[in-house]
Write a structure and sequence with these properties.
Blueprint: H1 2-12, E1 18-24, E2 28-35, E3 47-48, E4 51-59, H2 62-81
Antiparallel strand pairs: 1-2, 2-4, 3-4
Length: about 80
Amino acid sequence: MADFLRFFEDKVKVFPMHFTLTYSKTCDWELEIMKHNCAEYYPEADLDGDDVIIFRGQDLDLELLCAKAHAALKEWLIEYESGY
């Protein structure tokens, strides 16, 4: 988890995005990474209105969820930003 948070912290300085982490006993951990109001720049990406969904996931295991988000963020950056 620490590796993912460090990676996100470094990236967000040069590539603005939003990160939300929530927990509830009925839904477990939920993590979302988005770029708000950027749909026009990434029309082929997953969208939620005007927002670009970089990652949206849920898991009982927070470490596993962060690992999935870390990999998804890197893959998204490779596909849409030519690397990270």
